[in-house]
Structures are given as C-alpha cells and as structure tokens.
Amino acid sequence: MAKSGGSGNPITSADPNDMPDGLSFNGTTLSGTPSKIGRYKVKFNIIDRSGASDKEEVEFVFRDPNFALNNPDTSAGVYNEEFTKTFVAQNGKTPYKYSLEGLPPDLNFNPDTGVVSGSPNQYGKFPLTVTATDDLGSSSAQIYILTIEPYSKPPSINTETLDETVSGANY
Fold this sequence. Notes:
This protein is mainly beta. Helices cover 0% and strands 44% of the residues. The strands form five sheets. It has a four-stranded mixed β-sheet with strand order 7-14-13-10, with no helix packed on it. 12% of the residues are buried.
C-alpha cells in the first residue's frame, strides 16, 4: 500500500474484522493466501504525525481458479420429440448465469438454470457456445455439438399375410 503526503512517518492500519481469512496486513503490505472465495471490503486508515487522517475502503475479489462449465451427457435429441439438456457450472460463487449461442429453432434456453428444452423441428449437428458466469465475475465458455437425430425409430414394413383374392376382383 502506497502512502503519500502528510507529515512525518504515517501509520496505516486495517480493521482486522474486515480482513479475509488467510490474509494479514502489517501496515504496509497485505500478504497471505485467501482461504475462501468471495467479495471482501477492507477499511484502511492512515494517520500522520500531525493527526491528519484519511480512510479508504478497498474491495477485494477472490475467485476460484477451478471454476468450470461441465459438459452435459452426450445423448442426442430426436426431431420433433421433447428434449432436455442441462449445462452445469461448478467451483464458483453462486448464483451462476448462463448464455448460449447457436440454439436451433423451437428449443428454449433458461439463462438462470442452464437448461435447454423443447421439441426441435430441425435435425442435424448444431455447434453451441455456452458460457457460465459466477457471482464474482469468473466465466467459463465451452463449445458443444448438439446432435438432433431425424427419427427415433427406423421405419418398418408390415409383413402381415393378406387374404387371397381373385385377379381382377376388388380387394
């Protein structure tokens, strides 16, 4: 922490109740390793020899370096059948917000839950760009290929035996 102005050698202090777990302040240097993610506001006070003082509140944000967006299962959707897929973020500070680009028509996306749902009216492979952002501003983006199959069951031919008929007669 840099000090400027004032008379003599100023004394700087921080409220120990504001200090995030794992950090300490010795009057000039904030040091340590934060033990929790989060947003912390620390009040610093500086007083010079003449009694002049100043206060400053500084916000620190500690993010989890392992914040990530997990790939949902790789099952494919089927044309014109109900479909649901959930994208899940982990290791960040909740709540998470999600964004999605590339969604085919007739599918819906909920940015609060990461859920894609609906009955797709197109089949094919759709590249999706999904981004998750946690409450501290950390973000993780992934590209997934969403596959929508044309039909759930292959067509079949009815092979029942037909009744006999006479040529030239109505059946």
